[in-house]
Each structure stands twice: as C-alpha cells, then as structure tokens.
Amino acid sequence: MCGFIGIAGAPGTHVAPELYEGLIALQHRGQDAAGILSYDGMFHLRKQNGMVRDIFRTRDMQRLKGNLAIAHVRYPTVGMGTEEDAQPFYINFPFGVGMVHNGNLTNWMDLKSRAYPASNITLESSCDVEAILYAFASGLKDADPTLPREDRVRLAVQSAFETAKGAYSVAGILSEGALFGFRDPSGIKPCIVGKRETDAGTEWAIASESVALDVLGFQRVRDLRNGEAIVIEPGHEPVWIRVTEQDHRPCIFELVYFARPDSFLDEISVYKTRRRFGKALAKQWLDIGAPEPDVVIPIPDSARDAALSMAQALAKPYREGFIKNRYVGRTFIMPNQEERQQSIRRKLNPIPLEFEGKDVLLVDDSIVRGNTSRRIIETARAAGARKVYFAATSPPLVAPCPYGIDMATEKDFIARGREVEQVRNSIGADYLAYLDLDRMVDAAKVGNPKINGFCTGCFTGKYPTIDAEEHLVALAAERAQARD
After folding, report:
1. Does the model's pTM come out above 0.85?
2. What range does the domain containing 406 cover?
3. pLDDT over threshold 90, residue 451
4. Are residues 241 and 229 in contact, defined by beta-carbon separation less than 8 angstroms?
C-alpha cells in the first residue's frame, strides 16, 4: 500500500513544494521511500529511501520545476525495498512518460522473469510500477499518432490493463504536457480527483486519498471509476475516459485501517464508516451476551472512532488509556517481525488510572499475527486491569492480500484454522469478539449505496481478480528467500 498525488498546475507555476505538503499528509501510507517528479519541458526527479521530511530540501524544490508533477510515498510489498524501487519512474523513449502507483500486480513475477525478457525489455528495479509504465508506453507507441490524445491514452491504458493484472491506481505525466491517471478494472485501489481555483487559473489534482487534496485546498470532484482514466492538460477541463466495464470492488481494509479518518474514498467517509463499525460491533456484543465492561479504551489511532461509537452504544465510559509515541511508525507496515515486536512497547504507554481495578474493553481495528494484541493485553494487566476484553472492528483475518497490503503469509495469521476461543487464549484476553463480515460490509455500504460489494479477500480468501492465488504462492516464496 502506497500513497501518491499528482498536480496539473496553472501555466507558469511550480507545484513541487505543494506536492511535498501532500506527501506529508500521505506519510501514513508508506514510510520506506518517497519521491517527486516534475516536468517543465524536461523531467526533474528526486527520490530516496526514508521519510518525506528527511529527503527533500530547499534546493530540491528549486530544482523540481514545472506545473506538472507527481509524488509518491512507498511501502514495499514486492522486491527488497532498495532505493532503485523508490517511485516515481519515468522513461524518455519512445515517449516521455512518468508514473507512480498504489497497488500490486498479481502477475508481476511472470512479467519480470518471463514476459518482459522475452520481449527484450530489461526491468531496472523490483518495483511493479515499472511493468505498468512499459505496458502503457507500449500502447502509446502502437497507437496511430494522428489520433486525438483521448484515444491514444485509451489505447495505452487498455495495453496496461491487458498486461498488468491485479489492483492499482496510477498517476502520471505525459511529456506532451498533461497529467493523467487511471484505476484498475475492479477499482480495488482508491483514486480521487480534485479541483481548485487560483489567481493563476484552475488547477487539478489526482490522489490516492482525499486528505492530500484537502490540505492543499482542492475540492473533491469525484473518484475515478473502476476501469476509468483521466487526462488533464493545464488550463483545460479534464477528459474522462471509460476504458472498461466490470464489477466495482473497492478494498474494505482501507476503511478498516489504512486510510486516514478525515478522508473520503469512493464518496464514503472513513470517519463515519468507522463509527458505524463501532455501533455494529456494540449491537453484536449485546446480541451475543458478551460480558459487561466498566470502560471502553481504544488502541490508537485507527480504532478510536469505532471505540467511541461502541462506548456510546453500550452506555459505558470511553477513556484514553494508552498514550501513543508519535515518533514510532505504524507497526503493521514495519518491514519485519523483529522490528514490529520492538516497536510495540515503545509505541504505547498506559495510563494506570484508567485500568486499575476495572474490567476493560479494548477495541482495535483488526488482529493479524496477534503479537501486538498480546503485548497490549499484557500491558493492560500490568497497569492494573482486573479483566481485559478485546474487540476487533473487522472479522478474523485469514488470508494474505495480493493487492499491495503486506499482510502475513497464510501460516502467520493467528486466526487461520483456529476458533475464536483459541485466538482468545493465544492473545491472553478474558473475552474476544470480532465484527461479523456481513455487519461490517453493511456498515460500509451505508456510506455509498451505489457500491454493491467490496474486496474482502483478506477475510474470506476469495479475490475479485484472476491469478491472485498464484501470485500469493510466488510472493510467499520470495519473502521466505528474503528472510533467509
């Protein structure tokens, strides 16, 4: 899972400094690397491993000239995460094209090891956006140059869809002077378009999460639809291009965990959805006759909104029992288990007054490996809790994600092949409840009734695209080799 933003600024402006601010707003989506690519008749690139604040300096902003620019924060799911994998990527021949993406290709291993070498294409990284970039550029090359840009881009995106299977949203720059974007045929990965009026003229932006548009003063226009593309030439209205039609299945885990609560994805408020998750979980808690807590405490940050809603529905006090160290990254996206374990205790410190002598209900968004939950429960007991109940605002996670969320391999999921009672015993809780799948999906649908369903593969093992299982086998082997 990564984050990106692209801006088509008014002619004569330089937008790279604003992209820096947009990346800061998206830092939660990736902490491994970041980069900005601008265009003013030639490409200017700065990218490096590390956090956004550590990579860019004033001299970089002065060099990254142009009113067209794209930017990216990376969270590695394939490859070794070396500096060569940092985005953006660009090519100068046969067309100048720059590109960033959020997602994962389910046929990446095949493209990298067989298909592209057979066409004498040498990929220079382990980042799958490079495969999308080549497929898109190949489609442009094969298109009749006398066709309108809209038709050439449609053919280029078709080429990308035919070659690159999986889930991804893309933003890019055409050297003929335009910003473009497109979204995978299933619409699994989010992609939002925004607009703002300035003294210099109307400007447009594309981002993987609406909060990046908000902080820069862009108003949300709409989300790209699944299988849709957009081309924006500065000073002109965008051209929306419907490339393919099929079922729309956005990722529900974005709403559960990844996205910021102040974002909208597919017109769904992340904040309100998490509140609905909490309300639904409270009703389920009462329906199954779960024990009555004295207090409800969230595991910060992504469970806060749900925990508050749950406390209100249960008519129990809501309390902040853990103080989060803001200078420790999200443990879920730490590159290995050892780093996750070391970060958990540094990340959360309890307030003993909220635990001493109480039956405490801890609310979290999900349970993956169980290590974080186990350590948090131990911390709550050490702080004086009499009983520790645990509730997750999503169902048991039992299957890896082939689409760009670095979840554990099958053997690492604590809930896979286990009953809830076995998981409860493993993490050391006095009681454990997961939000039912149907209740979670129904709560999410309230935000946008036009969406008929979501990708719930990590909870069910059923995926909306072909080749997903094949990819997971290959990916598991690659990760095992990397660990060795």
Report:
1. yes
2. 270-463
3. yes
4. yes
